[in-house]
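Could you join me in thinking about how sequence relates to backbone shape in a protein? To get us started, please write out a protein record for me. Would you write everything just below, so we can both look at the same thing?
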Amino acid sequence: MTDRRLAIDAWESLFRAQHEVLNEISGDFVVGELTQAEYDVLLTVTRAPGMSARLRDVTANMLISQPSVSRLVDRMVASGLLTKCSDPDDGRGAIVSATDQGASLFRKVAATHGRSIAERMSTLSDSELEQLRTLTAKLRGPRASDC
């Protein structure tokens, strides 16, 4: 069995590191461009084939509840960042697609955000980054390898 105190200390260190890094890079999301949540939606959608994804796949990637994701997507459709239509394979579902405007804005913010992440993570070597990725995937469980 794992040493309980060590497990708690490691968890607290991971949690605090995540909190500090997120606070530091949250400045990448300038008011009036994209919020972090909108960026996360566009990240999932723009990485999908044809820059389109099922709404349920977008929801599965988000750290907020399904109703919140649905409302966020509806706001993004209204602001011209996404389109939304019925899933032809499942009439109960929806497909969301990045518009040219949404993809362009995502790329702009992603360039800045990517630089901030790379700079912040540069305190670790490539070997340490690979180890961190492996360890966090292991903590996330079997689903993490699907990402």
About this structure: The longest helix spans residues 4-25.
